[in-house]
Design brief:
Helices cover about 35% and strands about 25% of the residues. Helix 3 packs parallel to helix 4, helix 5 crosses helix 7 and helix 7 packs across helix 8.
Length: about 375
């Protein structure tokens, strides 16, 4: 699918907790000045009117009719049906709101809704990290190619999307990739967002620095403390990001074990990669103790930190050898190094989610 040559227009929406940003994409590029509205998220009628008004303003600026509406919206939701469930950040959407059908009825267009983790992964698979890393492997002379991607957004929570062979794994209940419900490795009675979230970083730092949470700064401020660019408890800040990385490494190990894909990280907290990556990689390289006294690796593939040049070189290295078939002239190529890796997205997270929404709409229209 070459998104850059497709002339169809898709309307998109970036639905944050306070601001809704409406736009339109054609040929994988934004073609209008985005429209920003701040709806009353506690009142359903006002919120729906704002969504309709936002899309109408975008349509008025277009010279051609759009083909679809496609956007990310928080869950829980029955995404294939376009029905939104009970949302924490958008209290107007409670009890089952058929947002997709409402918009289809009003605009006469097909509407596709998904969550941001899914669309982030889909965008990275089609137009982001998968093409990038496979081109790197081609240029290095390797026959290895990746077709499975685990997309992770690190921000308010732990968002996960899974893509295999350019197909988004949504699941039978629209719950494929609900990584936030994995168990927290360091706090076994909690889910992973106890650590893998913006508030998780703040709580962790507050505990370690013996501070009241209300007196604790943002993750960005805690990052600056850890880097000695701001006053505060440096040791507590480093420990908070270390715990973040440990829990993330174990969560990713669980997903990789079942899915076997390469990992790309996005979202605001991914900017602290240099602080949490060492603990993350250490956890993925850990081992299990077996009853007879020996150990087995936590993961089958060797995991590479693809943000480190020497690790990237090792990942791209050609280890293939030729195996001969007895009693024939035939040979087969074999790479004995099973490998995968973790990298940070090269794209703005909001832009790659929009790209995923665009690509997903075109894929569904072409069915």
């Amino acid at each position: 699918m070459d998104l850059s040559k497709d002339g169809r227009i898709v309307l998109t929406l970036d639905a944050g907790g306070t601001n809704f940003v409406f736009s339109a994409i054609r040929a994988n590029k934004e073609i209008v000045q985005p429209v920003k509205l701040s709806p009353d998220v506690t009142n359903l009628d006002l919120c729906l009117n704002a969504i309709i008004n936002g899309f109408e303003k975008v349509i008025q600026s277009l010279k051609a009719k759009p083909s679809a509406i496609s956007f990310a919206f928080p869950g829980p939701a029955d995404y294939p049906s376009g029905i939104i469930g009970d949302l924490e950040n958008l209290p107007a959407f409670r009890g089952g709101i058929p947002l997709g059908p409402i918009l289809e009825e009003h605009f006469g267009l097909p509407v596709f809704i998904n969550n941001d983790g899914n669309l982030f992964a889909f965008g990275e698979a089609l137009g982001g990290f998968i093409p990038y890393i496979n081109k790197k492997l081609l240029d290095a002379g390797s026959s290895k190619r990746f077709h499975n991607l685990i997309g992770v957004t690190l921000g308010t929570g732990f968002g996960v999307g899974l893509v295999t062979n350019m197909h988004l794994i949504a699941g039978d209940n629209s719950n494929g990739g609900e990584g936030w419900l994995l168990r927290d490795f360091l706090k076994s009675d909690s889910h992973v967002e106890e650590h893998i979230s913006r508030e998780g970083i703040r709580r962790s730092y507050a505990r370690k620095a013996s501070l009241d949470l209300k007196d604790t700064g943002t993750p960005e401020e805690i990052y600056k403390i850890a880097k000695e660019n701001s006053d505060g408890n440096k040791e507590a800040a480093l420990m908070a990001f270390n715990d973040f990385g440990t829990v993330l490494g174990e969560a990713l190990s669980n997903i990789i074990t079942l899915f076997d894909g390469i990992v790309v990280l996005g979202g605001g907290v991914a900017g602290a990669y240099d602080l949490f990556a060492p603990a993350m990689m250490k956890q993925m390289a850990s081992a299990f103790n077996v009853h007879d006294g020996h150990t087995i690796n936590r993961l089958v593939p060797k995991m590479y930190n693809l943000e480190q040049p020497e690790e990237l070189d090792g990942f791209l290295s050609v280890n293939e050898k030729m195996l001969t078939i007895p009693n024939s002239d035939r040979v087969v190529k074999y790479d004995p190094v099973l490998r995968s890796g973790v990298a940070v997205s090269k794209n703005d997270t909001a832009e790659i989610i929009a790209m995923g929404a665009y690509a997903y709409a075109l894929k569904m229209l072409d069915k």
